[in-house]
Structures are given as structure tokens and as C-alpha cells.
Amino acid sequence: MSIINEILMNLPEVTPPTQKKLSFKEKLKWTGIILVLFFVLGMVPLFGLNPGFQNRFEYLQIILASKFGSIISLGIGPIVTASIVLQLLNGSGIVKFDLTSHEGKKKYQGIQKLLSIFFIIFESAIYVLMGGMAPDPNLPHLRVILQLILIFQLMLGGIMIMFMDEIVSKWGFGSGISLFIAAGVSHTIFVKSFSWAESTATYRVGAVIQFFQALFASDPTDAALAISAIISTIVVFVIAVYAQAMKVEIPLSFGRIRGQGMRWPLNFVYTSNIPVILVSALFANIQLWITMAQRIDVKNKFISALLSNNGIVTWIRPPNLVKSIIEQQSLFIGGDVYLKALFYIVMMIIGSIIFSYFWVQTAGMDARSQAEQIMSSGLQIPGFRKDQRVLERLLNRYIGPLTIMGAITIGFLAALADLSGALSRGTGILLSVMIVYKLYEEIAQEHMMDMHPMLRKMME
Question: Which of 193, 213, 242, 421 could link 322 by a cystine bridge, Cβ 3.0 to 4.6 Å?
């Protein structure tokens, strides 16, 4: 165990800033650099990849913040998968970490990084060796060499994303995972809204352009499809912002200063967008592995049926209800579509609840951790004696219900967004809105005074 601890304590990492608080300009600089680098890496193609490469995993790109066919094809998949595995192990009690101590947190982060590296290597090999990203068939004599080169490039991109995430977490705003998802979703929404590029259909790619083209061509069906996607996107934006703004405020006072106090906010969506990221990443990984496993010749008919395109995949991939209703001009589009939609909603809600609970326990958001933080700030509940146990009992009344209700709300909203046929994936839009809103709150709270007056006026 001492050797493992030695490895964990000496893993390569991004050096944190020496100063206690970074300025707004410094954080903005590093966030901007990493964002530009993320988009640049998304345009670097994999050397030796089959020129006729067809992206069969396009639906995974938004959730995994990746660009398939580029050096960052893995995206945040390995990092999030490692986080899911470690949370499940810790939450189930199979592996226990003392997250109250500095050494315990360091060990937890070290194992998560090791797991991330393992999944980077594993997924890189799986993508290439199972044909997800096959080498150029025109060079059959170099097939093995090209496979190794492709695996190395995917591993390099995965490692870069891992350290870029760490740079943003320590030197920028929020986390790299959230930033990459928001950047990818924003890019997709803009392209799908205003792109003038031609598609295989009659109209242009952009929904706004497509809507006016369909109107002028007297095509109500395509016009309705375009405007429904735009409206769905706007509705998801509005509801997500409203849900994120809801909060419970607990009045607290400074024990040594009479008449002075503050309100401790607990957001209604207590765990923010983390549960939806984890559930969506889990579904994306299941779809990815099943797609890969379809290349294996399975003799068992039952397992073969589960792994087929009409098996598990159809139940965890949301049907586009709005599009089906508009195209068929009827609410009676088949009971199986509604059943799959209901199953998807239920699974999103259950998954969000489970991951919300685990996240609260592992991220220091439980009642005990919050009570310790409040007590260390010199605050207490007015009219109660200064006792952490009293404060913990009070917080338990709010944190438990908020964790469950927030998870149900965010899971339901994410599923509904996916089923509505919004621009980009509904889950991606929801995540993007909540990420940007959280970023706004963080900047407004920590950097309102040291930013440019023009920016400060916009933030107010």
C-alpha cells in the first residue's frame, strides 16, 4: 500500500496558484486560452484515419464534449467515467475515503486521476481495435503501425483534455468539464440556428434560415419542424434559468457582532448540473459500448437481441416526440414511442437522484460539511446556541429534500428537453444554460469589484 500511496502523492499535476485569490483578468486569460485550445484541437484530424470515416457516434459528441475524428475524440468521457466509478465505489462502501482530511481528498483525487488515465488508454484501444476509428484501408501493410499511431494520438488528446480540465479548475472559472460542454453546445446551437450550409434535405442547415425558406416554399410541415426546434430551445433556456434561480435562504448572524448577519443560500437545484452530466455520460458510454459490441458475433439470441439497434439502445436514446407528432400530424403516433419516452424520463429521474445523493456525500455538500463551513465563518442561527449539531440538524431539514426535489426536477427537465427535439440535444442545452448561469453567479460573487466597469454593468 505504501507504494500505491507514493504513486498517488506524486502523480503529475497542474501547480495551483500561490496567491490566495486570482484576479478576474488572470482567470479570464487562462479560461480563454484553454477554450481556444479546445476548439483548435477539435480541428486537428487523426493521422492515419480511414479517409471515408463516418461518425457513428455523433449523438455522443455533445455530452462527451468531443469531436470524433479529431485528436480530442475521447473528450471528457474517460474523466467522467472515472468519476462515476469512484463515486459508486465510495457511495456503496466498497472503497471508503476520508474526505474530511486533506490526505483523504488527495488520495481520492489521485485515484480518480489514475482511473482517468486507465480509461483514456482503454477507450483509445477499444475505439481503434474494434473498428470505431479504423486505419486507412489503402495501406493494409501498415495496418498495425497505423493502429498504434491512432491509439497514441487518442491517448495524447485524452491526457491533454485531462490537464486542460485541471488548469481551468485551478486557474480559471468553474471546471474544464463544464466549460467544454458549454462551448460545444453553444457552437452546435449557433451552427444549427444560422448555418447557411446545404444539407441533404431541401433546405439549409440553420433552423432560422430553414423556417423562412419553408414559409416561402409553402411547406408548413418543415416550417413547423424548424420553429418547434427553436421554440423548444428557448423554453428549455427559460425554465432552466428559472429553476437555477430558485433558492432557500437560511438567516444567520455573526455571534460576536450584534445586529449583523447574512443569508446562507441553498439552491433548489442543489447539486446543479452534475447529476445530469453523470447520467447522460453513463447513457452515452452504454450506447458506445453496445455499438462497439455489435461487431462481435454473439451466439446467444437473447444477448444478441439486447445488443442490437432495437435492444437496450432504443430505450436509453430519447425519441423525438414533437417531430413525430408534426410529421404524422396526429397525437396517435404509436404506443411504443410514448412508452420509450416514459421509460427515458423515469430513468433520467432515478439516475439523477442516485448521482445527486452520491455527489452531496463526496463533494462536501452534506449537512455536516456545510455546518462546519458556517461555524468556521463565525456564523450561527439567531436565537440558538452556537453548536454545530444544532446547525447540522437544521440544515438536514433542507439539504435532504432539496437534493431529492432538485434531482427530480433537473432529471425531468433534461428528459423533456431531449424529447422535444430542441436544437442540439436537449440535455446539452440544459447543461449549457446551467453551466453559464453558475459561471455568472461565481463571477458576480467573487470578481464584481475587480472587473472592467463595462463588464460590471453588464453583470449587474
Answer: 421
